[in-house]
Amino acid sequence: MRDTSFDSFFAVVGFVYQVLLLANFVIRWVKPEVELRYGWITYGLFLLLGLGSTAYLVSQGAPSKVTIGPILLLVYAVFGVVVDQVLRLDWRDKPILGVLIPYVILYQVSNFSWLFPLWQMKWQWGLPFTVLYVVHTVLNTASHFRK
């Protein structure tokens, strides 16, 4: 498939998203108290990344295959800010299904909205993205079972 400027921009934003997730979950694994105190910064960066990339791609008339990911990242970030920062719900330790289910769905769908198009664009983008996704997902999942 031919590389377009939208494809390259989409790939860069997707990799920044994955690196931010990985950094957040590494911090949660090593120093959970730091992630609890400063995790809001990650959401703030997601909001900026999602809003900025969505605005740019939509204003440039980019195809939906590259605009859906940033839009879903923005929705995921807004939902996360509301439940974690505004309402301060303790939904991870004491699962609230009405929060847990949409949160996990938005998290996964926002990741896959990058994963699948990147594989279609270039395997050289899809493979490292998949590795980052698997590593941060394993760290994230393991951190919930660590006492």
Set out the fold topology:
Blueprint: H1 5-30, H2 32-59, H3 64-86, H4 97-121, H5 123-145
Helix pairs in contact: 1-2, 1-3, 1-4, 1-5, 2-3, 3-4, 4-5
Structural commentary:
The structure is a single chain. The chain is mostly helical. It has one domain. 85% of the residues lie in helices and 0% in strands. The chain is globular, with a radius of gyration of 15 Å. The mean pLDDT is 93.
Short account of what is shown:
By secondary structure, the protein is mainly α. It is built from 5 helices and no strands.
Q: Would you tell me the structural class of the helices and strands?
A: mainly alpha
**Main β-sheet description:** none
- Tell me, briefly, the overall form: globular
Number of DSSP strands? 0
Q: Determine the N-to-C terminus distance.
A: 46 Å
Percent of sequence in beta strands: under 5%
The total of helices stands at 5
Radius of gyration, rounded?
15 Å
Residue-averaged pLDDT, rounded?
Answer: 93
Number of domains: 1
Low-pLDDT windows of residues? none
H/E element sequence = HHHHH
Short descriptors:
single chain, 147 residues, mainly alpha, globular
